[in-house]
């Protein structure tokens, strides 16, 4: 990408169309099939978590979507373009945060971000100005106090914040993140989650990220894709996936000094009836659904043990 080029604006994805569309994706290394038939689509502004065991093909899938790796078979479109043939206009609309990046050690934070931002300026559109102003970007990722430091002097967590800044400097339409919060402390992780919400809610950025932190996936993602055995084995919200594994919720409460537990398919109706019958006698009420961790472990275990239940959970978009 060169700052001297001033191309026409890239065509926008049609309203209602999939920003990411993957059909029959396969990837083979030698005689080994890593991805055997992945299908999914992502719409504008969605935040998607891609989960799966080590070696399941998560990073490979993202690298194919980014155009860094050529697939063996299938059809893939990102922003309406085949990633392997995407031009500079298309790449200017992507943001990428790799698992690790250790280049540019001698640059200062502000200088590097300002330099990288200049490459995106020719690709600005009326609806999406590029790049994000440098000092604003530095503040967004919490590096204001370190803006004039050399990158080689940053801590691991600070460096990870810089990685995120590099990924979003061009105000991307689609943002790919591979283990983005690895190495971040709880405060930095919280700030990062807020930043993703802002990008999705205010910039309508479509976000696809991998993580091993199931709590993070449950908190951040509109939808969760679980990749295992070379394919997507579950696709839906955390609640939808939990209902697949166990349709029941567990209601806990205290009454007359006794702690009680009841499993039910309809927690709302049960709690309503409980209060209608016992009123103020009810205390310490808690409704617990199957956690994403429980769901994930159960689904992966079913696959590993050859049990049934490997069909994809359908996801229905709502207005």
Automatic annotation (TrEMBL):
GO terms for molecular function: ATP binding; ATP hydrolysis activity. It is found in: Cell membrane. Transmembrane segments: none annotated. Residues 20-254 form the ABC transporter domain. It is a peripheral membrane protein. The keyword Coiled coil does not apply. This is ABC transporter ATP-binding protein. It comes from Phytoactinopolyspora halophila.
